[in-house]
Write a sequence for this structure.
């Protein structure tokens, strides 16, 4: 069964974003991680924002007065999203700070596109319930999946 995947991209930053690459990365993860046959499709939204906007969002939702690369906001009571009529799984939203992604890329010797794709993969995995913040096996699993998807897209692991 081919699942219909809709990724909405909103570029609110000053960076030029390759929306096609962001959609490809997000769809790859969703397609491979969503095996349930009761879903006909999945949707997620990705907003690229500036540093000031990311600081505001991070402070409001995480209590941290700093920019971060990506924040994930899953819909529903858990990180699995929720299903609406028609069998569409609503996953949630990613907020990506393009300026932070550019700085991280430079620090790691990567291109902006490579680091942006990592941020999208990382965020989508969070929307699907993966978590690295507690460490241990859960973190290893998530980091392994990041590497696998970067490999599938022929991109070297950035973190």
């Amino acid at each position: 069964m081919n699942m219909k995947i809709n990724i909405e991209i909103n570029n609110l930053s000053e960076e030029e974003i390759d929306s096609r690459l962001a959609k490809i990365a997000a769809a790859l993860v969703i397609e491979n991680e969503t095996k349930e046959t009761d879903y006909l499709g999945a949707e997620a939204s990705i907003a690229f924002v500036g540093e000031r906007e990311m600081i505001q969002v991070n402070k409001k939702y995480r209590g941290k007065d700093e920019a971060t690369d990506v924040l994930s906001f899953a819909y529903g009571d858990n990180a699995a999203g929720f299903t609406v009529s028609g069998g569409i799984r609503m996953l949630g939203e990613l907020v990506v700070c393009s300026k932070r992604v550019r700085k991280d890329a430079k620090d790691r010797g990567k291109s902006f596109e490579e680091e942006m794709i990592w941020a999208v993969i990382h965020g989508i995995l969070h929307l699907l319930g993966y978590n690295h913040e507690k460490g241990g096996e859960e973190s290893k699993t998530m980091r392994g999946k990041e590497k696998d998807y970067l490999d599938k897209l022929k991109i070297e692991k950035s973190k």
Summary: The mean pLDDT is 87.
